[in-house]
Write a structure and sequence with these properties.
Length: 416
């Protein structure tokens, strides 16, 4: 899965050069408020990128383990969203950027509800909603492998975790935290002590970028909605009190942690994982930030500056005798790819329509609904619509019938 040195593919070389160049930046300091974290090798620097077809590019020390710390927060939030739904989770944890440091003691006046799930108070509350084995198992499912807990870091954080325990007691006294404060913080410390590598983080971010499905195995880890909700909260709150400037300059939903880890995801394109322990004044890894800034600029990754996709999903049109229209579609189908077809068919309806969806991958539910509504309207005007799909996924419920091949569909319409 990890890339082999390759003279032809320019990407490994670009990533190596980027890591090599940034190694010279020795600015920042390794976190030491959790004493065990201070033992990290400050020179370590790893970068990995996971494509949505499951290829992992890795540069530098992408396989050096470290504790995940706050980078766990978005993934545990995703698990909670998946379990309880957005409204229920939002009743307990807000989604407003606090613009403050990760350990800020700021809760909603009156209710004690924490501002968002990316600061410690919000993360402790999110953790309290789930049994710990679900959390550990969920993080492992994101990564696609079992992840160990670093017991030494856990013990170190447990010993020195009074501020987090205070936050939990404060939330408890205000009625926001309903689980036991000591148990909730212990579970949160364990979650932060899960050991990962930059490559793991790239894959985990890849799941979010891939609308909740695992990029390597295809397994669904969280729902499409949960994945997009987490990415949104990462975009607004993921980088401590640097979140606004980060989104402006780098333009990637991301989350950093005090051990020097960082995940970033470009929806529908890839996930990135980084590790370098020296932190800036906001608590973000200096080199990880530098690497993301450079990657974003060089590869054009800003989420608000996407590749413009005007292309219709139709790759072939055939108009047969008798007014039978054949339209063959490909790709994952979103609004922009589907809309031209609806406009065309509404403008000049055929007498019968074959929609070949064989090459359609993972269509967006909204695009499918739109297409199905079109099929329904055509049927109401006595235009039969048949689907071709050798996987027979039954994507369009309003279609008259579905065939495994184009030939069968044509024969059927010729006969009727
Ligand atoms: N476990 C750390 C804490 O709660 C995580 C902080 C972070 O990575 O931002 O202090």
């Amino acid at each position: 899965m990890i890339n082999e040195p390759n003279r032809i593919n320019p990407i490994p070389e670009l990533l190596d050069a980027l890591v090599g160049g940034l190694r010279e930046d020795t600015g920042g300091t390794v976190a030491s408020y959790i004493p065990e974290l201070a033992y990290a090798d400050p020179e370590h620097f790893g970068l990995a990128m996971c494509t949505l077809d499951g290829h992992v590019y890795a540069a530098g020390e992408a396989d050096v383990p470290f504790t995940i710390q706050s980078v766990s927060k978005p993934f545990v939030y995703a698990l909670a969203l998946d379990e309880f739904g957005l409204d229920e989770v939002m009743r307990r944890v807000g989604v407003e950027p606090s613009g403050e440091a990760f350990n800020a003691i700021r809760l909603e006046p009156g209710t004690g509800r924490p501002p968002n799930p990316m600061v410690n108070a919000g993360a402790i509350l999110t953790t309290s909603l789930l049994p710990f084995d679900r959390i550990l198992d969920g993080l492992a499912r994101f990564a696609g492998r079992t992840l160990p807990v670093d017991e030494t870091v856990y013990a170190s954080e447990y010993r020195t975790g009074d501020l987090n325990r205070s936050l939990a007691y404060l939330m408890s006294s205000l009625g926001a935290l309903t689980a036991d404060p000591l148990e909730s913080t212990a579970a949160y410390f364990r979650q932060c002590s899960v050991r990962v590598t930059a490559s793991d983080l790239a894959v985990m971010a890849g799941v979010l970028a891939n609308a909740g499905a695992h990029p390597v195995t295809g397994e669904r880890i969280v729902s499409r909605d949960s994945a997009s909700q987490v990415l949104t909260v990462m975009a607004s709150c993921g980088m401590y009190d640097f979140s606004g400037e980060w989104l402006l300059r780098v333009g990637l939903p991301a989350k950093s942690g005090v051990s020097g880890g960082l995940v970033a995801a470009l929806p529908a394109q890839f996930g990135i994982g980084l590790y370098s322990p020296r932190l800036d004044q906001h608590g973000n890894s200096v080199r990880a930030i530098g690497a993301c800034e450079e990657l974003s600029a060089r590869f054009g990754l800003h989420v608000m500056n996407p590749v413009v996709r005007k292309a219709s999903a139709v790759y072939e049109r055939r108009d047969l005798s008798g007014g039978i229209a054949v339209r063959r579609l490909e790709g994952d189908l979103g609004f922009a790819g589907t809309e031209p077809l609806t406009r065309e068919l509404a403008g000049s309806p055929p007498s019968a329509l074959v929609l070949d969806l064989d090459r359609v991958g993972d269509p967006h539910p909204a695009a499918l609904r739109m297409l199905d509504r079109l099929v329904q309207s055509l049927a109401e005007d006595s235009v039969p619509v048949v689907v071709v799909d050798h996987r027979r996924r039954g994507l369009l419920r309003n279609a008259e019938t579905e065939f495994g091949s184009l030939g069968e569909a044509q024969q059927y319409l010729d006969r009727s």
